[in-house]
Amino acid sequence: MAPGIRAKLDRIGRGEPLRLLDLFSGCGGLTLGFVSAGCVSVGGVEIDAHAAESHALNFHPLKDRSAAPWHAMSKDILQLKPSSLNHLLKRPPNEGVDVIVGGPPCPAFTRVGRAKLREVFQHPEAFKQDPRATLYVQYLQYVQALKPLALVMENVPDILNWGGHNLGDEICESLKAMDYRCAYTLLNAASYDVPQMRERFFLVAVHKETRSDPSFPVPTRKVDFPRGYSSSRNVALKNVLAQSSDKGSWYVAPPAAPANAPPAVTVAEALADLPELTDHLHNRDRRGARHLNGRVPHTTAPHSAFARLMREWPGFESDGFLRDHVTRCLTKRDYRLFEAMEPGEDYPKAHVRATQFFAQELEKRRRSGARLTEGSLEYEELKAAFVPPYNPGKFPNKWRKMAADEPARTLMAHLGKDTYSHIHYDSGQQRVISVREAARLQSFPDGFRFAGTMNPAFRQIGNSVPPLLAWHIADELLRSLGITPKARPKLSEDPRKTQAKTRVA
């Protein structure tokens, strides 16, 4: 057995917590889930300055002044070598990290075959040989240098069918050569207590010397997903399923939810206890950065198990005030439409409503004697005050009003530019979601802080792995390694108990 692996197994055998490194960490969704399960963070590697600062703010605050400035700095993984972590690990690199997690941004692997990928990975200056493979290669180089006991990788489902190319199997093939047992699947966050339908690729690998096998958590929720999610999953898995039938694959089907599992956590369960926001209706012309330094008090008690968890998450409890319950100031045109839209309506339907409102106002003004001819400046200005300029045929998903009794649709990094994809279900508030509401939908607790202003915070949230899903994955991984994790929140009955009851019966 390799000395580094033996030292790690001995250390965790003495009850010491697993030491976690998060690559492409963002603000720390994966880190939060794993720390909550019982791991301890040694740091994150993240190039975005605001996200790196958020990660440090939440997991490596300034009380450790010798290391905290390093944690808060943006770090380019192309320049930062594993040996650079020696001063943090305070031990040889191959003994200092037990678990690596992260989601490298997905490059274009359309024509990179397995032989080519191995060649790229083994080259000492891989990024000069094939920039498409750069970030994937850096992740593997960290695994090779640090020799963790286990790792988790997250990405978009299209990684399995990138131009007909399955990168998941190639990652596993490279990891197998480094003595890891691998498996990957697609998991949806809504199946694990997150109030958001978010489908992602997850790969789990464990070193063969741990004598364990990779596995995935049993869902705690039974969710009826819209047709679009099923279609996207089928497209992503097209080549995977074809491969597994003839030459094998590391793909495993996602675990099924127990038949009696409760339905998904809804948007209303996640947000209804948060204070109403209407100031935007009186400050419509406000422009400029929105800061996250407010003190909006909670005015109602938690109304659901999920809301209670968001306020009482261990280590990230709310102090009773929301600092980031801020939203965008838009236009009267948009507020009018937000109020009129029905839950679940999208941009094409909003555009129809806007056209109707414009026609009504146009007729009203013409009856009053106004001469508004089509094509005139006055006509076009009036139309712009009622009708958004986007082509409804090209932007069908640009706007969507959330339904209170369903989980939200996927939050994207594009939230940093606009939040029309998540219009609040309460028509009286006539607005898009706030930063804190986006964080709730992603399952970040109220005590979690985001660095920067509103737009960077939205981007960090949209880029994150939901911490509650990460907690479930960490819980399963620790159990597979023979470690008792910290208790997961009981938002529904533990599916393991349900399965045990079924087997006894």
Automatic annotation (TrEMBL):
PANTHER family linked to this entry: CYTOSINE-SPECIFIC METHYLTRANSFERASE, DNA (CYTOSINE-5)-METHYLTRANSFERASE 1
Pfam families: DNA_methylase
Example GO molecular function: DNA (cytosine-5-)-methyltransferase activity
EC number: 2.1.1.37
Name of the protein in its database record: DNA (cytosine-5-)-methyltransferase
UniProt KW Protease keyword: no
Superkingdom of the source species: Bacteria
Active site: C106
Catalytic reaction list: a 2'-deoxycytidine in DNA + S-adenosyl-L-methionine = a 5-methyl-2'-deoxycytidine in DNA + S-adenosyl-L-homocysteine + H(+)
Family according to the record: Belongs to the class I-like SAM-binding methyltransferase superfamily. C5-methyltransferase family.
Gene Ontology biological process: DNA restriction-modification system; methylation; negative regulation of gene expression via chromosomal CpG island methylation
